[in-house]
User: What shape does this take?
Amino acid sequence: MALGWMLTNSTAVMTNLREFPDLASGLKNQVLAWYYDDQGWTGAWSDEVEGIIGENPLTGTTAQIRLSAEHGEIGGEISTKQLCARFPFFNFVMLEGSLSFGKFRGIGWDYLAGERVTLFTFKMRRIDNSLMEVIPIQDPAHLLPEKMVLARLVTRNYPAGMTAGTEQKEYCKEERKSASERLFRQGNRDKADK
Assistant: This one.
């Protein structure tokens, strides 16, 4: 009887056996994305936003963060005015880290002189769906403010967010202009001395 069933349904059985690993992997990915709340972390965040009515919970440090989360691993980029002062030709540095029990611990890093360098370590926690707190752990060069509270920005996947006051691609524009002018003046002085 079982042999008859197998012979008459062998095509369906084989198709199901072939599809099972993909279905199981897809289910695993969905469960992990739900568990780590990937969608809740992925997006853009800033404390320089427009349209806040009432008491402003943001810190006003003029910082921006872009995050991408997958199964509790988060990567992205961070911009602060302290970074602009030290590295005016960068608009941001990279960040990476992981979630544990709803809290993120990570590092800010970039390539300097061809070497990957950790610039600071920090932690983040989401206060709610629209606010996040960022606190440095080790920041010897003071590239981060003491504390940042950032609002989630409007993105394609999160239309309920706030509107940013500045774009991240132009973040260090003034500091870059000032540094370029200093370099130009120094270069002209060096030529005059020769």
The CA atoms of residues 44 and 118 lie 22 Å apart. The longest strand covers residues 115-126. The first helix runs from residue 2 to 8. The helical segments are 2-8, 10-36, 38-41, 81-86, 173-193.
